[in-house]
Fold this sequence. Notes:
This protein is α/β, with parallel strands linked by helices. It is 36% helix and 21% strand. The strands form four sheets. Strands 14, 18, 19, 20, 21, 23, 24, 25, 26 and 27 form a ten-stranded mixed sheet that branches. Strands 10, 11, 12, 13, 15, 16, 17 and 22 form an eight-stranded mixed sheet that branches. A six-stranded mixed sheet has the order 2-4-3-7-8-9, sandwiched between helices. Helix 2 (23-39) runs antiparallel to helix 3, helix 12 (356-367) runs parallel beside helix 13 and helix 13 runs parallel beside helix 14.
Amino acid sequence: MRQKVILKPSETNLTLRRSFFNREVSWLKFNERVLEEAENKKHPILERLKFLSISASNLDEFYMVRVAGLKSQIAAKVDELSDDGLTPSQQLQLVKDVASKLMARQQRCWEKIKSELKKDDVFVLDPKDVDSSQKIILADYFRSNVFPVLTPVAIDPVHPFPFIPNLGISLVLLLRRETDGEELRALLPLPNLMDRFVPITGAEDTFIALEDLISLNLDLVFPDFSVLKSAWFRVIRDTEFEIDEEGEDLRRAMGSALRQRKHGSIIKLSVNSDINKEIFEIIASELDVSLDDMVRHRSMIGLSDTSELYNLDRPDMKFKSFRIRFPERVRELDGDCFAAIRAKDFIVHHPYESFDVVVQFIRQAAIDPNVIAVKQTLYRTSNDSPTVAALIEAAEAGKSVTAMVELKARFDEEANIKWARDLERAGANVVFGFSDKKTHAKISLVVRKEGSRLRSYAHFGTGNYHPDTAKVYTDLSFFTCDSDICEDASIIFNFMTGYSKPTNLKKISVSPDGLYSQIKSLIDAEIEHAQNGRPANIIVKVNSLVDPSVISDFYRASNAGVVIQLIVRGVCCLRPGIKGLSENIYVKSIVGRFLEHSRILIFGNGEEIPSDKAKIFITSADLMPRNLYWRVEVMVPLENMTVHRQVMEQVMAANLNDEAQTWEMKSNGNYERVKSTPRAFSAHEYFMTNPSLSGRGKSLEHNPPRKPE
């Protein structure tokens, strides 16, 4: 059960703010670090552009989910304080102040990148830069490729203002008819499925934004009118939805909820910085948005679409490619995953080692006549998922296939509904878990007949079964045939399919019932070691640290003398380096070429790290309330000494030693980039150029933590 953070009556909001950093602002601080990579001139220019698009996309989702949540709390008159002692209204105002500066910085960054692209002969033209010959070329392109899909809409009592979907971009116009001088209003939505950047024929690597192409050819759309005033705008809607927990068919309920999402209330309205007052009043009136929800942009609206330009065939403007290695042990055994696992547990480090081994594990199960059952969780995967294809192949071969498909994986709901149908048609047993919690655990279980007995093989991942994200996310895949772990996995699958509460687990911890209590007991054990004069160390690598109970436990440990090193990529609500609270806690964030996604916990167990006696776990969960109490997650111990040492002496040591892409968190919540030299150690570079974990990777020394200020 979740441990409540109990404050004495005399403790005030000031105490809360001293103890916890605001979650929403911490997320914005993370996105600032992402944007910093877009401004980092050490990176190739197209990689910088990619970081900009990621930063913009992240911020869109932040508004769709987090800001929408704050606004819903305000509308519902929720007066519960956040962990740092703020009301929803106070948080919303704080978020707007920080986000507005971030958005202005994104706009400036785009202008700089666009200017610097010219040095590499890549041009994104403004309308004023298009010469007369290019205008003729673009007009021909417009007639053939854009005009047929445009739908101009008059705005009058007969033609009501149309619905604008989430992330939809539209042009509002005030027009005057040439024949009689009558003025009218019109709307011109940007086609959703068209590329945002249009290449200009005859000019290599030269583009114009689709909205600028349309603006240049409005005379073809409204031939009898002159344009008096116009402005582009973009809407972001609330994407959260409720589902009926008592519904008979969760899939049908999700389909209905997805339709509801498309009509969510508007959370943010982006407009041109020079928008005319009359035009804005039209938009605000028709969309029922207030001035507080409007953001003016001096440049391009919807910067997330700049990711399209990254697809240019210009390797000289991108990171140098590296060789993705296939796990050595599997390769030496002619690709036999089962033989490799029987020989010894092994771990695979993505993206440096190929995700293909995970697919091969499922595909081998599909074609192996001795395999009788395959069980798999699916949270997110690709549109052409090889994992799902292998499961379908296994089901069609007559094997017992169980797929736990999470329909509530945000923004992947429709894709998961499709996969569920495909799997059902192939004969798989498809289950959707729980209506009141998400299944976020990453588990595959294969049952194989070997002689007179059955042997189970398991895979546990810190990331999704998604071959595309596996190329840019750092994650760990753990393969084992340990009988206790595999039996635990079977019990957990029974929990997901039959709701039977997982009891008598031997090695795996599972949320929502046992994961936090296990973490707490491990922290308590380190406190006891410190109190008895033994070395006491905790090292944790996660994406987010939010849960107040875990943070309070870390504070208790720090005060007892436990040395705690936290590698938290994104949101961190813990305040490090505060005397009497967290003076033994050091927090760093790594932001670079790859998205740090692996979740690892190490407890010294009474010895200095690195130590063979340390307890090491990988998990699908971040240290957030949703993961610990409202989701199905798993935490798995790494007991095989080879795997144990690989994770401790390579993966974690490299992350702790990194200086090239490290940010240190200060007690005020701000981050400072570690000063690095051209030869500064980079965890990403180390793994790109060194042998695979499953081969003979070189161990690294663990540097002592920096003393917090």
